[in-house]
Amino acid sequence: MAAKKTVLGAGDTEDPKISSFAERDLLDQIADVSKAGRARRARQAANAVIKRLAATWPPCFSIFEKHREPLKIGIYHDIAVAAAGAITTDELKAALRLYCGNVGYLLACREGAERIDLNGNVAGKVTAAEAAQAAGIVARRQNKSAAKPAAAKSAAAPQLAPRKLSSLANLRAAGRARREAAVS
Q: Which of 2-11, 27-36, 85-94, 166-175 has the lowest average pLDDT?
């Protein structure tokens, strides 16, 4: 027996309990909140793993973002062997993604900076390509964060042409103009 497809109209929904656009919007907002909540919980879990890594290998990991140093290439495998099941692979991947994606870590990845292993020993140097990639990520984030307030300002209030009101007569004229605009 073939499944019957229903075509939804403008106010129709698949769920008969949801009858209006407002209810649907509310459900969408709840879904967005739950997505944000999941992301926040994932960040908290990754930070907890970073704290455990910092407690286990203090010469290598730092909780303080400004004290972070470039890590050895392939340190994931070293940690996975040393942790021996104490940290799951997914937890470790998320923690290293958060740790290495941090601005403090990216700023530490300058050309020629020493990479360190779990014991704090030198395990290579940051190449020019790696430093350029890290600098590019930082620049993109700065551009993105600078664009957000500008977009929010332009969306929040329409831009009005600045007027110079230097005298009492000019202020009175501007008040009259506003009152006349409000009446019409």
A: 2-11
Q: Give the 3-state secondary structure of 119-172.
A: CCCEEEECCHHHHHHHHHHHHHHHHHHHHHHHHHHHHHCCCCCCCCCCCHHHHH
The answer to whether the CB of 120 falls within 8 A of the CB of 60 is yes
Residue entry with tokens 């799951």? 88
The Cα 118–Cα 71 span in angstroms is 8
Q: Encoding tokens for residue 72?
A: 């050895």
- R_g of the chain, CA atoms, integer Å: 28
> 157-180: per-residue pLDDT in tens?
555 555 565 677 888 888 888 888
Q: Which residues of 70-81 are buried (b: 16+ CB within 10 A; e: fewer)?
A: bbbeebeebbee
- pTM to 2 decimals? 0.61
End-to-end CA distance of the chain: 64
Question: What is the tens place of the pLDDT at every residue in 85-130?
Answer: 888 889 999 999 999 999 999 999 999 999 999 999 999 999 999 9
The CATH homologous superfamily to which domain 21-142 belongs is ProQ/FinO domain (1.10.1710.10)
- Give residue limits of the domains in the chain: 21-142
